[in-house]
Design brief:
alpha+beta, three-stranded antiparallel beta sheet, 5 helices, transmembrane helix, DUF2628, membrane, DUF2628 domain-containing protein, transmembrane
């Protein structure tokens, strides 16, 4: 199961229809981005994280320059994967900070397997699930005796009564 952070635009109240209002929400998955491991720069560009892309490009250029200047063996270029791993791990945080600077506000968190399930859960909770009312279910475990109706047993402290031997 994935945790999804929900962001709502500030102007969400001024939208006219429910569909337009719901389309303004952004769901950010709080998990490792597997697609960023092999193609981190494309993932950054896809999410329009321009500053992160520039930082990634500068980091990669610095690694290549350091390998060539220090005359390290070619297998030292494996260090280029460090940038990809950093993007894969940090992508949710980058997306959250971008949305916060764009005027979105964090509206909550949802736990679900897919994006569609996360949207369904969030909007059911937010709008009150008026389409399918849930039936009343009695509490499980039978009738419960209130705490005041139980007789107080003298000499018992904790879970075990005193030994009578």
């Amino acid at each position: 199961m994935a945790v999804w952070t929900v962001f709502e635009p500030e102007e969400a109240e001024t939208r006219r229809s429910t569909q337009q209002w719901a389309d303004g929400f952004v769901f950010v998955p709080e998990r490792l981005s597997w697609s960023a491991l092999p193609v981190a720069p494309l993932v950054l560009l896809r999410h329009r994280l321009w500053l992160a892309f520039v930082g990634y490009a500068l980091l990669q250029a610095a690694v290549i320059l350091a390998v060539s200047v220090l005359d390290l063996p070619d297998r030292a270029l494996v260090l280029l994967l460090v940038g990809n791993i950093a993007v894969a791990v940090g992508l949710p945080g980058l997306r959250r900070s971008k949305l916060l600077t764009q005027g979105y506000e964090e509206a909550g968190c949802v736990v679900a397997h897919t994006l569609e399930a996360a949207e369904q859960r969030y909007f059911d909770a937010r709008l009150g699930d008026v389409a399918t009312p849930r039936p009343f279910l009695p509490p499980m475990g039978g009738a419960r005796v209130p705490a005041g109706a139980r007789p107080a047993e003298a000499g018992v402290l904790g879970l075990f009564p005193e030994a009578t031997r």
